[in-house]
Write a structure and sequence with these properties.
- 28% of the residues are buried.
- The protein starts with 13 loop residues before the first helix and ends with a helix.
- 20% of the residues lie in helices and 33% in strands.
- It is globular, with a radius of gyration of 19 Å.
- By secondary structure, the chain is of the alpha+beta class.
- Helix 3 packs parallel to helix 4.
- The strands form two sheets. Strands 1, 2, 3, 4, 5, 8, 9, 10, 11, 12 and 13 form an eleven-stranded antiparallel sheet that branches. It has a two-stranded antiparallel ribbon with strand order 6-7.
- It has one domain.
Length: 209
């Protein structure tokens, strides 16, 4: 299999640096290094030592890479954990933190468990006030269905970051993490996680600088 270049980290892309760090931690390449036809950058595809995690990464700039991380269905504590996936565009420290969180054993996967991790970091659950939208009338029956999708949002103390749960009746339910875009710090970046993503993974994507 191909290996990342051996030049100093400062001169290689984020995806190659990520691959190098994972190889040192026992990961291995699932395929030879390829080239993304849209970005013209290297594609690194690796799997974890236990085979439960798979990574697809390529650069979007020198300091930032697109990471697609998937967790296989595994059995833990006598129960089978469902598979999950995460897609995010982040700098190397955030990518490493998310992957490290994914390696934690038997992690919980409920909205309350995510909320507990965020609350411990000083975040708060935010009320979504539909009346603030001038286009929504108070007597609009569209929002009176108690059986409709549940939306819960947690916000950072400074309001710069947020985590939102869309479910369980969305098809499919999912998580969204919003934070300043790593390339300029002003526009918003949205990361999406599937319904059964472990709570530490979502918290790491939200909290890591």
């Amino acid at each position: 299999m191909n290996t990342p270049p051996t030049t100093p980290d400062a001169t290689i892309g984020c995806a190659a640096a990520l691959a190098r760090a994972l190889l040192a931690d026992g990961w291995s390449y699932a395929h030879d290094i390829g080239t993304d036809p849209a970005w013209g950058t290297e594609i690194h595809q690796l799997h974890s030592p236990d085979g439960c995690l798979n990574l697809h990464a390529n650069d979007v700039c020198t300091q930032c890479c697109l990471v697609m991380l998937t967790g296989s269905s595994v059995r833990a504590s006598g129960k089978r954990r469902r598979s999950w996936s995460a897609q995010l565009t982040v700098p190397l420290p955030v990518a490493l933190a998310v992957i490290a969180a994914a390696r934690q054993p038997a992690a919980t996967r409920t909205p309350d468990s995510v909320g507990a991790l965020l609350s411990a970091a000083g975040w708060h659950e935010r009320d979504d006030d539909l009346d603030e939208d001038d286009d929504v009338e108070e007597d609009d029956d569209e929002f009176d269905d108690e059986d409709g999708p549940l939306i819960r949002t947690w916000a950072a103390p400074d309001g710069a970051r947020s985590v939102t749960w869309f479910g369980p009746d969305d098809d499919p339910a999912f998580w969204s993490v919003e934070r300043p875009h790593p390339q300029d710090g002003t526009t918003r970046a949205h990361f999406q996680f599937s319904q059964h993503t472990p709570a530490p993974v979502i918290a790491a994507a939200a909290l890591t600088d």
